[in-house]
Amino acid sequence: MTALDIDAVKAFVTIVDHRSFTRAAEVLGTTQGAISVKLKRLEERLGLKLIERTPRLVRLSAQGAVFLDSARDLLAAHDRAIAGLSSVRRRFSLGIATHVAGPEIPTLLARLNAHDPALTIEVRLDNSRNLLDAFDRGDIDAAIIRREDDRRDGQVLAPEHFGWFATPTFVYREGEPLRLAALSPSCGVRDIATRALDAAGIAWTEVFLGGGSSVVADAVAAGLATAVFSCRLAPAGTMEVTERFGLPPLPSSEIVLLSTLSDAKSRQALRTLATAFREHRPPSV
After folding, report:
1. What secondary structure, in 3-state letters, does 31-93 show?
2. What confidence category does residue 284 fall into, taking pLDDT thresholds of 50, 70 and 90?
3. How confident is the model at residue 228, as a pLDDT?
4. Which keywords does this chain's UniProt record carry (predicted)?
5. Phi-psi map region of 228: left, alpha, beta (phi>0 left; psi -120 to 50 alpha)
6. Using one digit for the tens of pLDDT, what is the confidence trace for 225-278?
7. In the chain, what are the domain boundaries?
């Protein structure tokens, strides 16, 4: 009887799920070379060619397609057996900045739950500055935030670009204070906006302050104000108005993942989260 290496089977299924040796290596926390070696050994053990690989394409062979369902069943049975050895659920608290969280977040959390059903995640939504303070105090275990100031720690997940957004009917006359909506006085994005306006000598007045990102988005969508948004998260029906109103360009930033988690399973869960974020994050406009 042929005995199969669970890690090799997991490598095969992960390659199939991500259609990439590189992404499979990221998810499994290993190297592309190690993934290739595991797949080769599995194929040799089975005497089958499971994956067809070209410089531009990774896909299942006909024999791989037949084996795939059995491979998933084997991994599921293995995971159930391991989970049955422990009745203790693990948990960690994750902070996600409100101006980072987009429609992809439920998908990310679902992916994380599928990766490790025994892991309970407590999610906290707040602005980046408050989450960074909470992370430094040890109140949360991990945070996905916009990079703050000159702080260089953390894993970079993606660049973040900002713009001035308003409705096509929003009226701004030169010489009048720009009507501005912002999340809160402690919001770093608000600081970026007001510093840029001050440096350009543009008068401004806040007509909406606080109330959460949905209130700010509603104010802008109603044509009552303009606001700075991530270019990927601007409210529907709005447009980028930097050139139209002669507003100052805004510096880009980075979205980073901070974590104090050190155990192997939690680190693996974070790698899964980071990979899923990159895959599901909508492109900037």
Report:
1. CHHHHHHHHHHHHHHHCCCCEEECCCCEEECHHHHHHHHHHHHHHHHHHHHHHCCCCCCEEEE
2. very low
3. 86
4. DNA-binding, Transcription, Transcription regulation
5. beta
6. 888 888 777 888 889 999 999 899 988 888 888 887 777 777 777 788 787 777
7. 6-83, 90-153+258-280, 162-251
pTM here is 0.58
The answer to whether 62 and 109 have CB atoms below 8 angstroms apart is no
- Model pLDDT for residues 161-189, shown as the tens digit of each residue: 888 999 998 888 878 898 888 756 667 77
Q: Looking at domain 6-83, does it have CATH number 3.40.30.10?
A: no
Superfamily assignment of 162-251 in CATH?
A: Periplasmic binding protein-like II (3.40.190.10)
Q: CB-based contacts of 158: which residues, under 8 Å, 6+ apart?
A: 254, 255, 277, 278, 281
Q: What is the rounded distance in angstroms from the CA atom of residue 252 to the CA atom of residue 73?
A: 45
Strands of the 119-126 sheet, one edge to the other? 119-126, 90-97, 142-146, 253-259, 155-160
What kind of architecture, by CATH, is found in domain 90-153+258-280? 3-Layer(aba) Sandwich (3.40)
CB 204 within 8 A of CB 178: yes
Q: Are both 6-83 and 162-251 of the same fold?
A: no
The one-letter code for the residue type at 67 is F
